[in-house]
């Protein structure tokens, strides 16, 4: 099997890892034009300064000794297998880099024999890149649960970012679908990486040339929809991981049925993409909006209402918190108003220091009044012409609902939302 055949197999096998986004493009170079791209292996990530960078996303091997029920690379699944040598993969990365296909590497692997052996081979790839080729590009590498801590440290000294996939949201689900893995074997390397990062930062304060350990931090991924955990359980686990292990990101992967199994959803089950989206929105609330997991969801509401984003759900469940007076409310409360984001909340705080706010000003500041108008007042007054009942707010927050503002320009024909959609699609 030649290197390109291995590349085709092992980049395709890596596509279910959502820690970065696959390009999905296959476009050959053309004379007189610049650049080209290929579907297998190209993905995108973002640097600390916000730049989008292209990565080679690939597995070291898909020859796995584990038999995780949900995984396409599990030991008992009939799928094409391949394994790179460290030299092959390092050379391939440099060839792609020199041709300007990529700016870095995203490296993961199935468990080849044992976690230690797998980590040793991955570490050798990084050593060749860093020491022999002098490669200074971005490298994200997956730590293998169960590997020796010294191997994890060796990977961390050559990588920019590391991640250890938690895979499933509970120990019971791991036992059911991934019996070769355990919660302890996953959390232990997470703790080692966090401690290594803390120690490295302390050393750099004293010695500026001290080696950097995982300077871009660590992340993890969990599969959503393969097991029966509620959104609240997933969100509480996410918050705990951020708090205890100082993760940069928790990635959610909607379960895509690729293999049959008695403990798995049927193969015709659609991936829960909207649920994944709602969890990412809630993750944003945890990291940037000052919410905690037990506020967003509770025993009475263990799952998100898929019709609304999580902040709208929270506002509808807590009417006692509203309306908010935007001219006096603290910044932390402004962040909890649907339609007010981090940037618009900061602008509100700045502008109201010099003048009173009204609804026209709020719109100019970036507030989405279509949602926010139900939860705020300006100078103690509702938006002019706004008429609604408290129990009707949810209906007006739906995408197809017309805002109940009476002082709008009337048209000769006032089409319903479904008529507008039919006009756009040419059905009428």
Describe the secondary-structure layout.
Blueprint: H1 3-13, E1 21-22, E2 42-46, E3 52-59, H2 86-98, E4 104-108, H3 115-132, E5 138-142, H4 149-158, E6 161-163, H5 171-177, H6 183-206, E7 218-224, H7 231-245, E8 249-254, H8 273-288, H9 293-296, H10 310-317, E9 324-325, H11 331-334, H12 342-351, H13 359-364, H14 369-372, E10 376-377, H15 393-397, H16 417-425
Parallel strand pairs: 3-4, 4-5, 5-6, 6-7, 7-8, 9-10
Antiparallel strand pairs: 1-2, 2-3
Helix pairs in contact: 2-3, 3-4, 4-6, 7-8
Structural summary, described in words:
- An eight-stranded mixed sheet has the order 1-2-3-4-5-6-7-8. Strands 9-10 form a two-stranded parallel ribbon.
- The chain is built from 16 helices and ten strands.
- The protein is α/β, with parallel strands linked by helices.
- The chain starts with a helix and ends with a helix.
- Residues 21-27, 33-42 and 402-428 have low confidence and may be disordered.
- The longest helix is centred in the middle third of the chain and has 24 residues, at 183-206.
- It has helices spanning 3-13, 86-98, 115-132, 149-158, 171-177, 183-206, 231-245, 273-288, 293-296, 310-317, 331-334, 342-351, 359-364, 369-372, 393-397, 417-425, and strands spanning 21-22, 42-46, 52-59, 104-108, 138-142, 161-163, 218-224, 249-254, 324-325, 376-377.
- 38% of the residues lie in helices and 11% in strands.
- Among the domains are: 3-163, no CATH class; 318-425, no CATH class.
């Amino acid at each position: 099997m030649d290197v390109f055949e291995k590349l085709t197999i092992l980049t395709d096998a890596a596509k279910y890892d959502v820690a970065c986004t696959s390009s999905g493009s296959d476009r050959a170079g053309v004379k007189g034009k610049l650049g080209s791209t290929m579907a297998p292996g190209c993905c995108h990530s973002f640097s600390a300064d916000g730049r989008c960078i292209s990565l080679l996303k690939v597995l070291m091997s898909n020859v796995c000794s584990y038999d995780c029920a949900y995984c396409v690379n599990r030991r008992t699944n009939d799928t094409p297998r391949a394994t790179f040598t460290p030299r092959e993969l390092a050379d391939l990365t440099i060839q792609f880099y020199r041709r300007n296909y990529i700016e870095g590497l995203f490296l993961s692997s199935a468990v080849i024999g044992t976690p230690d052996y797998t980590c040793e081979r991955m570490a050798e790839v990084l050593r060749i890149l860093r020491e022999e080729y002098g490669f200074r590009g971005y490298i994200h590498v997956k730590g293998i649960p169960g590997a020796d801590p010294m191997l994890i440290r060796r990977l961390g000294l050559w990588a920019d970012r590391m991640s250890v996939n938690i895979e499933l949201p509970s120990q019971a689900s791991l036992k059911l679908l991934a019996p070769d893995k355990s919660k302890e074997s996953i959390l232990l390397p997470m703790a080692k990486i966090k401690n290594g990062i803390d120690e490295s930062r302390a050393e750099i304060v004293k010695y500026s040339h001290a080696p950097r350990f995982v300077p871009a931090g660590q992340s993890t991924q969990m599969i959503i929809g393969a097991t029966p955990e509620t959104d609240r359980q997933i969100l509480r686990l996410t918050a705990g991981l951020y708090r205890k292990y100082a993760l940069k990101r928790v990635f959610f992967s909607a379960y895509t049925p690729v293999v049959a199994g008695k403990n798995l959803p049927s193969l015709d089950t659609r991936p829960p993409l909207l649920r994944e989206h709602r969890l990412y929105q809630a993750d944003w609330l945890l990291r940037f909006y000052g919410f905690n997991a037990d506020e967003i969801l509770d025993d009475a509401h263990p799952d998100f209402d898929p019709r609304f984003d999580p902040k709208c759900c929270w506002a509808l469940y807590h009417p006692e918190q509203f309306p908010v007076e935007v001219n006096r409310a603290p910044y932390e409360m402004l962040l909890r108003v649907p339609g007010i984001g981090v940037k618009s909340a900061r602008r509100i705080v700045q502008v109201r220091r010099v003048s009173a706010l009204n609804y026209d000003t709020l719109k100019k500041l970036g507030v989405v009044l279509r949602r926010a108008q139900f939860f705020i007042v300006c100078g103690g007054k509702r938006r002019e012409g706004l008429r609604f009942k408290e129990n009707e707010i949810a209906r007006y927050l739906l995408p197809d609902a017309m805002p109940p503002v009476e002082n709008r320009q009337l048209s000769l024909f006032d089409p319903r939302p479904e008529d507008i959609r039919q006009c756009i699609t040419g059905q009428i």
